[in-house]
Amino acid sequence: MANFAKIGLNNKVIEVLSVNNEILKDSNGVEQESIGIDFLTKLMGWAIWKQTSYNNNIRKNYAGIGMTYDEDRDAFIPKKTYNSWVLNEQTCLWEAPVAYPTDGKGYIWDELIKNWELAPIGYPTDGKSYTWNENTKTWDLIS
Fold first, then answer.
1. Among candidates 55, 9, 17, which has minimal Cα distance to 36?
2. How does residue 123 score in pLDDT terms, banded at 50, 70 and 90?
3. Phi, psi angles (nearest 5°) of residue 83
4. Is the pLDDT of residue 83 over 90?
5. Where residue 7 falls among pLDDT bands split at 50, 70, 90?
6. I need a surface site. Which of 3, 9, 19, 81 has the fewest CB within 10 A?
């Protein structure tokens, strides 16, 4: 399956749809992004689509709702997690200005001091950012 991101205002991804690869093939049997865009435009009545890839070989990152399509970089860029983080031009992902510690312990980013702090016990270790929800007594993913 080929995947396409529907691009809305301010180049925000508002939907991601799959299209059978056979639909993308030209008369020579070669897949063409433009054929997929034409198909989706006719089917959905929306003209702005960009192909995306799970293995990140098209446009740097797999598109997700809320990400931004950057025309100059021809890449999908996630929402900036922290103000101090900088965009890695090679990966088009946001990175902390200080390298993540390599001592095997779990850390979370502290934007106030702009550095890594030891994560509290029970903090998820999947590399994503969370905030403590006092009402549910759980860690909520920061989106």
1. 17
2. confident
3. -60, -35
4. yes
5. very high
6. 9
More confident residue, 130 or 13: 13
Task: Report in angstroms the alpha-carbon separations of 95 from 5, 46, 113, 135.
Answer: 24, 33, 16, 30
Calpha distance 53→2 (Å, rounded): 7
Question: What are the extents of the domains in the chain?
Answer: 2-77, 107-141
Could you give the 3-state DSSP secondary structure of residue 74? coil
Cα 4–95–141 angle (5° rounding)? 70
Tokens describing residue 23: 């639909």
Question: How far is 96 from 77, CA to CA, in rounded Å?
Answer: 15
